[in-house]
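sorry for the late reply, my laptop died twice this morning and i had to redo everyting from scratch. anyway the thing you sent over, i finally got around to it. pasting the sequence first so we're on the same page, its 247 residues, then the predicted structure underneath. double check i copied it right bc i was rushing
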Amino acid sequence: MAMVALVLGVAGLVISGAGLVIALLPRHFTPGQQQAIVAWEVSGRWRSMPAGEIFPSSIGYSLPDTIIQDDPPLTLEALRIGIASQSGCASGVTDEAAAAVLHRNGCEAVLRATYVDQTMSFVMTVGVAVLPTAAAAAAAAESLSGTQLAASHDSVELPAGVRTLRFKGVGAGMYDYNRQLSANLTAGPYLVLYAAGYADGRPRVQLGHDSYSEAEMASMAQGVATSVASTLGASPAPPRCPGSPGC
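ok and here's the structure:
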């Protein structure tokens, strides 16, 4: 009996020691846990990040080599005119069909801002539709690409997308523009929509007649949208369990 008690006591001591060692070692997240933590952090940025970081006061962009050849490439800037208050999903897009797409995919809100180029020739609105997951954002983007505006001013219809901003006060008219182009891209759970046009309020025209204007307008719009998407969708540092023992 004494030997049995001694063996059991030693075994208990070994088990306790092993448990203590495991408790003192740093905890490591599983790949699934890391992915969930990263997704949670990215999905909360639209709430935690200041609006001025999501929509910077200026964003650089370059023209394609097919339009202007320069070494180093000429860098232009889009200047922010204003940031709108957070809106509902339906009021942030052009029509009911687009609103239905966002609603079906669980949209929470739409954030918007307006930019102009340095010469104030072009104006654009960039919008961020907040979706619950990356899969939902991708599904909404695919659906919107096939959703056409109810009416068009020429033979080419624009896809439904972000609703352009309206400003009040002196000079507001130059930002009340007609959409010449409209597109979107995704970044994690965010659907970034953008639309651009001429700042002088001219009616919608087919841009193919002016290749330079088409290229610069598209470059500005894509540059701003890509910057916003990169900010919101950037991958954070791998999550680590703080402290020891355990978390």
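The mean pLDDT is 79.
thats about all i looked at so far, will dig more tmrw
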